[in-house]
Fold this sequence. Notes:
Layout lengths: L14 H8 L7 H15 L7 E2 L3 H8 L4 H14 L3 E5 L5 H11 L8 E5 L11 E2 L1 H24 L1
Parallel strand pairs: 1-4
Antiparallel strand pairs: 2-3
Helix pairs in contact: 2-4, 3-4
Keywords: Plasmid
InterPro entries: Phage_lambda_VrpO_N, WH-like_DNA-bd_sf
Pfam family, one: Phage_rep_O
Amino acid sequence: MFKGFESPNYTQIPNEYLEYTFSHECDLTKVEMQIMNYIMRSTFGWQKSEYSFVCSVSDIQVLLNIQKRQVITNAMSRLTEEKKFLEKKLVGDLPQESRTRIEAQLKKKLKANQFLYRLNIIDNHMPWDVSIDPTSKITDMNERKESFNDKGKRAKSN
């Protein structure tokens, strides 16, 4: 049995998003909500307003442990095109200097036909290459996931 949440460990989430998820109009799938929660956590949870959290489909695929890439691409497309919750940028449209910086931050080579994603924040004029490394967040999220599962297992055994 789950015993409760640790406090005061928290992430600010925009009211517009929370109000939408509480409404009868909310039609987000589980995967779409997981993606949004992860990106919100990674954008706002580290209290680093000078950075823009950028991720790729493969980053989300690793985090959610979903084998079918199409599930993630469909969700990302809907969150970008229909919902307008995310912005996307084609890697090939980035200046070479920006692309090089993002590749260094992500610790991987990007393909010109690959998209990068971030939250659609009003008046965000942040360049795409001023970003936070998502791989460090994936590790942190996995540690949190393991910790949460361990606490649940211990509570059941008591």
